[in-house]
Write a structure and sequence with these properties.
The protein has 262 residues and is α+β, with helices and mostly antiparallel strands. It has 2 domains: 128 residues, Arc Repressor Mutant, subunit A (Orthogonal Bundle); 130 residues, no CATH class. The chain contains 12 helices and 6 strands. Strand 5 and strand 6 form a beta hairpin. It is globular. The protein starts with a helix and ends with a helix. It holds the Pfam family Peptidase_M78. This is ImmA/IrrE family metallo-endopeptidase.
């Protein structure tokens, strides 16, 4: 509920602000938000060459107010953007924890330490830089992960991690090995034709907004003889609640699909 509130009150307005300025969703980019957005927080923003390359940035709250420092030695624009968005997440979500202290961002999105605050700030950054609808649009435009990086500024590694989360949260995939296989296949795509042939494209194209991957449409996306199809057929444990209905079997899924489209 907490993250849903953050998404509704902070993330979605920011995302919608940028979307409204785009002619097409694949033009979406928050790169121009930074560092100017910190002035509205308000927070001081500094880029300083840290002695270590391990720490990319930190946020500090003291008697002078909020300060964000970014390691000037970051030589990767994607990493810098993610760090800036990550520190903004700390400011929005974690001010109670910032008093007389600072929070560090040390590693990339899928390497963050186990600290919950760091995971939440990573969640904020990933959702801001690559919202679900933008990720969907890029895949539908047959863009590769490298092209998504070019448009959004999110690194290839973080893009792939984001796609894994979308498969989990939007399409409700439960089997980690299946998610890995789908995203790995997409990561190897170098051309539009390869993206169009990928399982990720098929899932996004045919199954978008379906309440669960175990719906008939989503299952039919994969070739009947493929390993993916066999794994999808095995993925019958429905663990989500939608429209106040507990999903227990395929009939429940079909019922909820009807509710969504009525």
């Amino acid at each position: 509920m907490y993250l849903q509130s953050v998404k509704k009150n902070y993330l979605d307005p920011l995302i919608n602000l940028e979307i409204n300025e785009c002619k097409n969703l694949d033009d979406y980019s928050v790169k121009k938000l930074f560092p100017g957005i910190y002035r509205g927080v308000p927070a001081s923003y500094l880029e300083f060459p840290f002695k270590t390359k391990v720490i990319l940035g930190h946020t500090l709250k003291d008697h002078l107010g909020l300060s964000v420092m970014i390691n000037k030695n970051i030589n990767d624009s994607s990493r810098k953007l993610f760090t800036q968005a990550h520190e903004l997440g700390h400011i929005i979500m974690h001010q109670d924890f910032l008093r007389e202290s600072f929070l560090d961002f040390e590693k990339d999105i899928n390497e963050a330490n186990s600290d919950m605050l760091e995971h939440e700030a990573n969640w904020f950054a990933a959702n801001l830089i690559l919202p679900v609808q933008v990720a969907y649009t890029h895949v539908m435009e047959k863009h590769t992960a490298k092209q998504i990086r070019f448009f959004t500024g999110l690194s290839v590694q973080s893009t792939l991690f984001r796609l894994k989360n979308i498969l989990k949260k939007v399409y409700w995939f439960q089997e980690e090995s299946l998610i890995e296989q789908i995203v790995k296949q997409y990561s190897n795509c170098n051309h539009m034709s390869e993206v169009e042939s990928s399982e990720l494209y098929k899932i996004f194209h045919e199954g978008y907004k379906l309440p669960h991957i175990d719906s008939p449409n989503a299952r039919s996306l994969v070739n009947n003889n493929s390993d993916l199809f066999k794994k999808l057929n095995q993925n019958i444990k429905l663990e989500k609640v939608a429209s106040n209905n507990v999903i227990n079997n395929i009939n429940d899924v079909q019922h909820i699909i009807g509710l969504l489209y009525n």
